[in-house]
Structures are given as C-alpha cells and as structure tokens.
C-alpha cells in the first residue's frame, strides 16, 4: 500500500502556501518537514509531500501521473476545487459525477502536477 507520494516544486515556498490551503480543505496539515520537503497528512493513511527535486534540476509534471485526494463529501470536493482555483490552479475538469457514484474534480497545481479530489458515494 502507498505510504507517501511526492510532487516536485520549483517555488517551494509558493507550493507550501498552495498545499496549506488546498489540503487544509480536506483536513490535511503539515507533518514532517526539512529544508527540501514538506509532508502533509491527516493522522491516518498515506502522506503527500512536496519537495525540491533531489538532483537540483527543475521539477516537471509527469505525463499520465496524477495524485487523487479523497474527500468526505461532494461539498468537500467543491470547496477543495474552489480553493485550488483561487490559489492559482489550472482547471482540468470542474466538479461533477463521472460515472456511477464517482464525484470528482481535476486541476493542476502551479508546477503543473495533476490532482483529482473525489468522493465515492
């Protein structure tokens, strides 16, 4: 099972502000930290971290790579998506039903990393 996932950041301070707001909508808060990585968690399950690439090169978004964030309700999906848009995210698909009971929204963070916030129910 997944323990944690990392996303590269070119502007580490800007990325921390972005994820403080977006993940805060889902109950996430800062956890482990050091000079090149900031982890976020909710106290249970996997952690998401943003980091300066270890090799010192630029952070780039992977083609086909996406991190999905579970939300407790459709309203939490809506709030998180709105916070992401207000914080400089690029729209990749507004909140809505996407087959069956999957309700999700898609966006890219300021570094181009693709995320989905979703609720099944």
Based on DSSP secondary structure assignment, what is the total number of beta strands? 8
Give the CATH architecture: Roll
Helix content: 10-25%
CATH topology: 2,3-Dihydroxybiphenyl 1,2-Dioxygenase, domain 1
The name of the CATH superfamily reads 2,3-Dihydroxybiphenyl 1,2-Dioxygenase, domain 1
Descriptive tags:
alpha/beta; four-stranded mixed sheet; 8 strands; globular; about 120 residues; 2,3-Dihydroxybiphenyl 1,2-Dioxygenase, domain 1
How does this model look, in words?
By secondary structure, this protein is an alpha/beta fold. The chain has a single domain (4-53, 60-120), classed as Roll (2,3-Dihydroxybiphenyl 1,2-Dioxygenase, domain 1). It has helices spanning 12-24, 74-86, and strands at 4-8, 29-33, 37-41, 47-51, 66-70, 90-97, 102-108, 114-120. It has a four-stranded mixed β-sheet with strand order 1-4-3-2, covered by helices on one side. A hairpin with a 3-residue loop joins β2 (29-33) and β3. The model has no long low-confidence stretch (mean pLDDT 95).
What is the gist of this entry?
This protein is α/β, with parallel strands linked by helices and 121 residues long. It contains two helices and eight strands, in the order E-H-E-E-E-E-H-E-E-E.
């Amino acid at each position: 099972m997944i323990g944690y996932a990392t996303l590269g950041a070119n502007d580490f301070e800007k990325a921390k502000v972005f994820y403080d707001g977006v993940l805060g909508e889902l109950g996430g808060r800062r956890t482990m930290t050091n000079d090149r990585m900031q982890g976020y968690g909710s106290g249970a399950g996997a952690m998401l971290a943003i980091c300066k690439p270890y090799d010192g090169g630029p952070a780039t978004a992977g083609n086909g790579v996406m991190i999905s964030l579970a939300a407790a309700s459709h309203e939490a999906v809506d709030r998180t998506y709105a916070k992401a848009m207000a914080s400089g995210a690029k729209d990749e698909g507004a909140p809505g039903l996407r087959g069956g009971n999957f309700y999700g929204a898609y966006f890219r963070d300021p570094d181009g990393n693709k995320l989905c916030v979703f609720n099944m129910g």
